[in-house]
Each structure stands twice: as C-alpha cells, then as structure tokens.
C-alpha cells in the first residue's frame, strides 16, 4: 500500500558532514580567501559571515571528455531560415549563439570562481584556528574579579537579619509536637479516665481529684517545652559565586609620526584587528580605545586613527601616559580585562625610550592581561625595541615582535598568541 | 438517459495549500486511474521534505543515503548558493528507483504541484523504472537502499581504520573514473545486501591471492624466450576501468579494492538513467498529462487546478529555438513528451505518412505499443525507431555539421523529405554513449616489464580528448600504482601517445 510520510522533521543538515569535509579539504584556499577578506573590514565588523571565493580550478573534479575539434554534427530546433547545404559562418569564439550542449557547457564553467558563504562562526574558526592568548584559560579560571550572591538553601547559623521565620517556626512547631507527644498521649488517657470517674462517682471523689492533679502536672510539663529554641532557627543561606568578567578593553596604541607610512599603518591595522577578533571570542563586551601619538598623544575614533596623517617627531611615552590615565579613569581593574597593543616603527626620541620602559613596566603591565608590542620596520631594531627587550624577560604578559612586511602579520600574530597553556 | 441520475462525482480539493488528507485523496484517485491504464509500477512511498532536505538530496546525487565525500559538500554549497539567490528553483521532485519507489515532495509546492509530482514521479518514472530493460538489467530496485547503507558503513569503517584522508584520496580517484567504471555490454550480477556482506570477506581473500599470483615476482621463464610473442594482458580490451583496477591493480589493499567496487557499483546503478533521459522524462510527462486530464474529464478536478497544472506542464515541455537566449540543446522533456504523444497519435489516428513510416504500429493498440517501446529501448534506439517526420517538423529540426577543417559550418539536413532520415540519425547519434563520452579502454599491461598500464582512446569522429586529462591520468596512476599511458587511436588506425603519467609507488608510500 502506498505510504505518505512526513519527513520534514527528520534530521536536516544531512550534508553537514560533507560540508565539513569540503571545508577541511580546501582549508588552504579558504584560509587565503579569509585573509583577503579581512583587509576590507573594519576591525569591529565581526557580526557577519563572509562570502568566500576560491578558484574553481582548485576544486574541479576531473573527467575525461570530448575536447574541441574534430567533427560535431548536432540537431537544433526552431529552424527559421536554413535549407540543406547552407553554409554558415562560425559564431565568434566563446561558443555563444546557441551551440549545443557538447561544447558550450564545457567552456561556460571552468574559469568561474566558486563562491560560497561562510557563516560567522566558520569564518572566525578559520581565522583563529588553533590560536589562543597566552595564559588565557588559566587567567579566566583563576582570576576571579567579580562575585554575585545567590541563594543556596538554609543554614542553622547566620546573622539575625537572615532568619527565615517560616522555616524557623515550622521547625519549632515540629519540635514541640515531638517533645510533647508522650505527655499528650498520657493526658488524653487521664482525661478519659477522669470523665469516667466523674460519671461514676461524681466531681469530688478522691480518684477524680487525683486525676485532676496529674492532669495539671502534665499540662505544666507540656507548657514547659519552649515555644522556640535556638536550634529551631533557620537562616537564609546566600553564597557568593564567582562571576566571570565578560568585558574587556583593548587599547590600540599607534605611532602616527611622519615615519609611519600608509603601508605600515595597514599592517598595524591587521594586527589590531586580529587582536580584536580574538577578544570577541572570549568577551561579551569589548571597548576599544584608540590612542595615536607623535609628540603628543590623543584619543581618537577608529576612522581618524587609521586615516588621518600627522607628522613630526615621536614621543612614545606620551601615549603610554595617556593610556594609564584612561585606565585609571575609566577601566577600574576589577571589572575590566585590559589588553594593550602597540604598533610603532620603533623610531623614538632617544631619551624617551627608557621612560617608556619604566612606564610600561611599572604602571601599565601590572594592570594588563596582556600587552603586545610590534615593531614594523624593515631595518635594524630601533632604540625602543632594545629598551622593551629588557622588559620581556620580567613580565610574562608582555610580548614583542618585529614585522618586516605585511605578509609577516599572520605568522607573527600566531607567534605572539600561540597557545601557552600550562 | 442515465445522465440525470448519475451522481456528480465529488470534486477533489482545489485549495493551493496542501494537507496530508488532500494529498492522500489525490493519490488515491491518481492510483485508480493509473491502474485503469494498466500502469505497472512499484508501490509508491511519498515523502514530504523541506527545501533544505531537497538540497541535501541533491548533494548526494538524489540518494537518501550515501557515503561522505567533500564533492557532495561542494555540490550542496553551490546548490544552496544559487537557490538562496533565487537563480535557480529546485526540482519539484526527486524520485528514487527503488522498491518501494520513493518520491520526494517539497513542502513549498502547492497542492496542484504535489498532485502533478505524484502523477509524474510515483506513476510515470516509477513504471518506467520497473519496465525498462536497462533498469531491469542494471539495477536492482529491491536492494539499492540496502546496498547504499552497506557502502556508507563500509566506507565509514575504512575511514576509521585508515584515516579520512586516505579514503578521500582514493574516492577522488575513483570518482574521476566513475563514468568509465561501468559495464556497457556485460550483464551485472544483482546486488543484495546479505550476499554482499557474506561474500565480501571471501572476495577480499580470494582477490588478493589472485593478484599475488598475477604479479609473482619470479616469472615463469619461457623455454624459448623471444620467439613467442608475449601474450597480451588483458586478452581483450576492458571497457570497465574501475573493474579492471579492482581486479588487477597490483598494489591495492583489499579494502581499497572494496571501495573501488562500491564506486563502480553506484556508477553502474546510475548508468541507465544517463541513457534513457528523453524516454524516461517524456514518459513521466506523458503520464502526468494523461492521468490528470483523465481525472479532469471525470469531473474530479477544478478548473483552477487545471490552469495551474497546464501552466507548469507547458513550462516543462517548452522547447526554445536555437536562436533564443535560453536555448541549451534539445529539451529532453519536450522531445520525450512530443514523441510519446506522437506515438499515441500514430496508433490511434495515423496519416498516410505515418503508415508509410511506421507500418507496424500505425493503427495498433496504443497501450501495447507503449509497453513495448518503453520496455525495450533506450534514447538512442528510441529516437532512431520512433522519431516521426511530424515531430521533426513540429520542432523544426535541422542539423549542423561542424568540421574543424572546414571554414564554415554546414547545414547538413533539415526537416524535409530529403532530410528526415538524416536528422533522425544524427539526433539518435547524439544520444549514443560513444558520442557523449570518449571511449577509453584498458588496452595492455606490460606484464614482463615495468607493469605499466596502457589505456586506449578510440577517437570518435576525430574528436580529441578534452577535460583535464593530466589530472585524470594522475588518478588512474594512483589507483594502478605504476606508470599509466594513454594512447589515442585515430580513425585511420594510427596510434598516438597522448599522455604518460609515471609513477613508481611502493607499498605504504603515499603518493600525491
């Protein structure tokens, strides 16, 4: 018999495995495409997936086919002008104009790129792959900065303010009932007996008086059971549970002096972006503070940060000072995870570099989860680099790297943030 | 006189939203009419699915179960992309040649479309699968789902044991040769899950021992070396490349042979579909058209239903002209539908011309003629046998000869007295497998020497080999394990070496 089956609620995503296989197989190509896509994004534009294009030749499934050439004789439909034996000029190359399936379809594909959509998650996964900030997991687990209290049943001791009256009274009632029960049983017996005696021999007989006496004693005993006792008391129990911090602030510090050209800034942007991307994976809310500096530092918005051009000398310490001010002013250490990323070409006013080192070591690093410095310069390390080098041994949350050209960015980033889980 | 008393039959629901009850009602009626026409089909199993599930089904070549492979993921992505962008509608239905015959209906369809699809797939295609000799010979509807389950589990097992990557590379190679992995002339043994499982271990053992025998390192020395011409191996050229690899590739592990076999079996299963597209689609269109019209004549269908149905039917069987932008060859639906309609016409109402061209079927019982034609032909022979001058005229067919040595294209025949036979011949040849795909066979294995394998391509009408020869040859070499050569034999008999892919692979060494 015929069956009609509703399969609509069966497992969807039957192809999910195949999709994963596809992604794994073309990881190289996809990763390259992702890296290209980053260039056109704002560093905070992370809510979208990405349209990815990879050259279709890379993922062709080869087959033997008839090639062009030789003799093809095919039937077409819709004759409106031809008679047997007519000669026709060949259509211009490209095979358009109604060539049959045999050839045209061979060419139609081929050159095209294969485009598909990566979800945001897939996009980021590829972006991050096996990256993680140093000490990250450990920090997250160990560094508890915020608590919230929540109820956790009742306890038998606590502050009077926390007494739970209903619970306490219920306990007291139970206790009274339990302690009094032998007496009350006896009391009931005696009362019955008393009634009987009174009926038989009147109110004032010896027996009745005796019974009344006893009843009176029992009543007194029952009354002596305390109405409430200290161990009846129950207190609301509240415990403090650690609340992981879900917010972070990221400082982007960049040198915009004359020696930083557009190319270097682009490199720096990619670096900041990578850091930002990573942080969004870990924190719910992220503030980004852009500080640019030449001889004086200034907090600016993203657009100005990357696109305006300044000139003049360089005093790096000005930026670090500003960063410190902003931290103390706005990002009290308790509730914010602070990350710093500094990009520079390393060219600093000579006397300033030691100041930078001190500032960083004494005032900034202790507050920071992580501070990374990249020096974008093709030549010799500059004086700032040499000063910072002295720091890198002492502070585990400080890292520095040199980048010579944009192509180095990705490996450098990995180097900086490679997993160092303990 | 009875008319007044005859009860007016109750009309089937004519809403555009479907319900399970409505589908059931339509199905019951369609089944009844189909039975009146003596349509012999497998029991139908109608499954309602979402568009996403439809895309899943697309990706695994329409099968409800299949093994995992990245190429299916790729197809899914490209289908999904074009569907989401609205560049392409999904097929209204997918039907699986199995017993019971599974027809997928998409939930987005209107009730009319669902009825159309039931008639088209669950009765049209289904009866074709059951009747046509190619399907009867090459596929086993009872066992295919079981076999696919077996294949998926087996391949999953291999992935566990030998690593996904290794299995994937092997499947890549097999897929590249899939079209050449079918028997065209031999009759295949039937597939059955129980037998497969039972015999698989046996076969594994046996094959391995055979191979070892074949490649024994100490050759039996001829007593008179050089005098006797070395016997050729294989003695006859082998058309089924994957079969040859499975049986004779020296270095494959037993599990690898089994995987080759699975791909080959699945290719074989789809083989008849490639050869009967015009007939099969035409047949299904003919029957949905006929069945629904019969229901309409009985008064069961509303006019609004018929209008929607006819509109989509007309779209399906539309044949654009060669100079229209969306022309992409002869539409198999259009041609098939026209031909079946025409055969019915010839049977019922033949003209003089028909009597001259089709003396044996003109005026015969159309149901019998249909049965015979459906059962015993494939596209190539069906067109050669039944394409009538009327259909050629209706389509205004003309043939164009494109010879690369001529400066111009030539119209070799058109739909006129002189050209009918020629046009029919050319169209039939277009559906000939040899003209659709290059003919490549295993020609020789150098048994005494470097174990290299030679493939020979028989040129068809001087057409050179195309496609990514280099890549396919690498895949062939990976499977074979030694050097593989590809020769091309021209029509004048001369042979030319097209490609040589050298490979010296040792056991345990993976080659890329």
Automatic annotation (TrEMBL), chain A:
Source superkingdom: Bacteria
Annotated segments matching region Disordered: 83-110
Listed name of the protein: UPF0229 protein GPA22_06430
Entry-linked NCBIfam families: PRK05325.1-2, PRK05325.1-3
Pfam families: DUF444
Family: Belongs to the UPF0229 family.
Automatic annotation (TrEMBL), chain B:
InterPro entries linked to this entry: Spore_V_R (IPR007390), SpoVR-like_C (IPR057008), SpoVR_N (IPR056174), Ycgb-like (IPR057270)
Pfam (any one): SpoVR
Start and end residues of each SpoVR-like C-terminal domain: 438-490
SpoVR protein-like N-terminal domain sequence ranges: 17-435
Domain of life: Bacteria
Official protein name in the record: SpoVR family protein
